[in-house]
Amino acid sequence: MATEPALALSRRDVLLSAGALIVSASTGLVPSPAYGQSAGAGAAAAGSVVELIPSPRELDSWIAILPDGSAEAFFGKIDMGQGLEVAIAQIVADELDMSVEHVTVRMGDTATTCNQGGASGSTGVSLGARPLRNAAAEARRILLERASKALEVPADQLSVANGMISARGASGKTVSYAELIGGKHFDAPVEWNKAVGNFMDVKGQAKPKAQSEYRLVGKSLARRDVPGKILGTTDYVTDVRLPGMLHARMIRPAIAGSTIASVNGDSINNARVVREAEFLAVVAEREWDAVEAARTLQVMWNPPASDPFPGTDALHEHIRGATVVKREEALHKGDPDAAFKAAARIVQAEYLWPLQSHASMGPACALAHVRDGEATVWTGSQKPHSTRDGVAKLLGLPPDKVRGIWVMGPGSYGRNDAGDAALDAAYVSKLTGRPIRLQGMRSDGTAWDPKGTACVHRARAGLDAAGKVVAYEFVSKGLSRVDVMFNESDPRCSLAGMTLGLPLDSGVGLGTPSESYAFGAKVLAWEVVPPLLDRCSPLRTSHLRDPLGPEVHFGSEQFIDEIAAAVKADPVEFRLQYISAPRDAAVVKAAAEKAGWVPRKTAAHSKRSLHAGMLQGRGIAYAQRGDTVVAVIAEIEVYPKDGRIWARRFTVAHDCGLIINPQSLKQTIEGNIVHGLSRTLFEEVQFDRNSVKSVDWASYPILEMRDAPETIDIVLINSTDVPPSGAGEPTMRCVPAAVANAFWDATGVRLRRVPLSPPRVKAALAHI
Amino acid sequence: MAIVDFMLNGTPVQVDADPRMPLLYALRDDLGQSNPHFGCGLAQCGACTVHLDGQPLRSCIAPLESVQGKTVTTIKGLGTADKPHPIQQAYIEEQVPQCGYCVNGWIMTAAALLAANPHMTDQQIRDGLAGLKCRCGTHVSILRAVKRAQALMTGNTASPSPHGD
């Protein structure tokens, strides 16, 4: 991997290198070709609008047939290990009538893929596959057209199998994709919808196949990234090595909001200080020297005039009392004020969600080489096009002079520390003039990543005399989901930009429940409060896997149970009574059936004695996420003596439209359950009034094998008439409330604050 | 600086470095190994795990000098594509990893557990894998893979269906 890619490869370079995207350093840098204007009618508009490189308007930017007849699909998102790569290959292979083994998916290199938004919002298949499917269909149409001419057979009398086009009947005429176009451009346009990011789409003249014609879509084909990961032959971003590189570590203050008073460069050995304004790093030829230097460097800090944080246990009180920067009602139906006034009975509750860390498996690593007015950055960020844009802005370079290359990193669950690491590496490279490999220490991944937001949810329901819900209100108040943007495309939202004094750009947004309960008058709203510290905050907030999903639905789906209990209704029956969307009702029913749900009017605990020091309970939660709907039933054991909850069995019913690969889907759902369970039971960022105390796995514990579920039963509902939606995140949002509802069933006690950790459980059950 | 000699994946190697430097940096930076990984530097996660004379070792805190004259095996030395270790084969068949950054810890630890006892109960497997982290939440398929590896090693092919129903 000790290679240096040229800045921007043209598609033709890619073809000539038979798909090898990494070229040897010995080839040197090639001038950025006028890609996107290379040929084809699609480029005719060049000059009238800013052209993207590569151009989404060209079929060649999406699909290539190599000299050996195999195909490459250029995908502007990335696969974090949830089976997206093989899913895209299945889709493209089906459209091209090829075998999946002959389709390679190229991902994450800004020089060769269009900006489809990277990994984002569980849209990998739902949005990401669309242009690939359309482009593949168009490629097949063009190939058939050419074959028709070559074979002198009408196109409608040709068939394709495994990339070989044959005339039907006795003539026996055949021509292969390789013979028609192998290694050459299509030079054909596709119609681009002008969107950049998740919604980028293209269309050709061809109509993609009907679902009934799929051969590969719907099959559990094996992922191709697995063997290399298991045999130790796959390189991660941490394994990229550049000739002449220096190792770098960033230096952060112990007390948040501090500025640098002085730095003693003599306090470190075999390393040197790199500094501009508050941007402070150490670099060394040897990695261990950089690690040691980061540990021993003497820095005098000026602490902020006042402590910036309320402390972990005062956070929710702070949020309750904080000024509302912005309030937004996602839904306002009927006349809630009048309905609440007229209600015979009010049920209300408040739910608390803590700040949580991405705490990726390893701290982020990035490599950067900035020189001669251009830059290349290797990143584990799930949005390498955003990395490119952020680095370009930070360095004052045009985006086409910066190349972002995604290489699998140590996990990614949203805006973790990867984006910051990439911009930091680029800036250290600029200041040193050397290629840089920058990696965080554990605290950079836990204490200094952007955090998932903390909120206080206020829920209120008005019931009439018959117990019918006539008024409903759910308001979430919390720290913005985009205090720093959900990607690193704007350096104002990066630690590098903030330490260098760029103006601040705090965004505002939160979220509301996604469900279809038809409750008379209904209000769903959010309120955002100001960030705790506006610059260089270790508690700045941004997207963490399923942003606002677990946070909001922990409250809303537990509150549904509380209303059900208030009217002595079974939680499943109660949901079905009010759910208005048929697919929503279907997942609730499917989960209940699979789990063998036994209707109950009240918590089971009253009927069970404390047997063998353990109580059992069941709980359900359901939610939508985009067009995906999920219901989760948790069956838990509670051990009051040590406060332990073991969520022993989960049952999931999941409908994400047309299923591409059932096995990958099931394992993605399992990952959602376990990650969600970890966040439910264990995770809360600890901080005092001026510093973050969660710095490693001891101070930020997550779920370990002891607490993993024994069984996860999954019912996949394959709605083949519904386009595929997403699965990377939806299940997670049901986990916290399902567990909390099961806890109430087991104990008769409500836990309205996450995490449901052993000390909280013990305290809650002290009277039992 | 000091010269430390040891066996790495069956080959004698020599490193001239700070003897207190953790083995992990010698493996990655001096010996060019892309595995194991840095996860925490605190022996809290397992991403850096290798075998030292067949036993799991967190290489992120083990001083280089402590492996003088010993045998170090990384995940790459545990098995190959042609001849994977049963736990590697099981991991591949079960399609376990997501990001995969953590696998050194789970696979190297499980390999040692399986060598000591290929007939572990579920509880013994869970206990034996304590202290390891996986942030993608693949724990349930890790358990399936360890059971599958047990079946592979003991010839009991009647292992449970990998993906439930």
By CATH's scheme, which homologous superfamily of the domain at 11-234 in chain A applies? Aldehyde oxidase/xanthine dehydrogenase, molybdopterin binding domain
Question: What is the SS-derived class of chain A?
Answer: alpha+beta
Mean of residue pLDDT values of chain A: 92
Q: Outline the low-pLDDT stretches of chain B.
A: 159-165
Distance between the termini of chain B: 58 Å
The CATH top-level class label of the domain at 11-234 in chain A: Alpha Beta
CATH level-4 homologous superfamily of the largest domain in chain B: Beta-grasp domain
Structural class of chain B: alpha+beta
Verbal overview:
The complex is a heterodimer of chains A (768) and B (165). Among the domains of chain A are: 11-234, Aldehyde oxidase/xanthine dehydrogenase, molybdopterin binding domain (Aldehyde Oxidoreductase, domain 4), CATH 3.30.365.10; 238-305 and 360-446, 2-Layer Sandwich (Aldehyde Oxidoreductase, domain 4), CATH 3.30.365.10. In chain A, 58% of the residues are buried. The longest helix of chain A has 23 residues, at 129-151. In chain A, a hairpin with a 6-residue loop joins strand 5 (164-167) and strand 6 (174-176). In chain A, helix 2 (84-96) packs parallel to helix 3 and helix 13 (549-566) packs parallel to helix 17. The termini of chain A are far apart. Chain A is globular, with a radius of gyration of 28 Å. Chain A has 768 residues and is of the alpha+beta class. The model of chain A is unreliable at 1-49 (pLDDT under 50). Chain A has a seven-stranded mixed beta sheet, sandwiched between helices. In chain A, strands 14-22-21-20-15 form a five-stranded mixed beta sheet, sandwiched between helices. A four-stranded mixed beta sheet of chain A has the order 23-24-25-26. Chain A has 18 helices and 26 strands. Chain B is of the alpha+beta class and 165 residues long. Chain B folds into two domains: 2-78, Beta-grasp domain (Ubiquitin-like (UB roll)); 86-154, Orthogonal Bundle (DNA polymerase, domain 1), CATH 1.10.150.120. In chain B, 35% of the residues lie in helices and 15% in strands. Chain B is built from six helices and five strands. Chain B has helices at residues 23-30, 75-78, 86-93, 103-116, 122-128, 139-154, and strands at 2-8, 11-17, 49-52, 55-58, 71-73. Chain B has a five-stranded mixed beta sheet, with helices on both faces. Chain B starts with a strand and ends in an 11-residue tail after the last helix. At the A-B interface, helix 5, helix 6, helix 16 and strand 26 of A face helix 1, helix 2, helix 3, helix 4 and helix 5 of B.
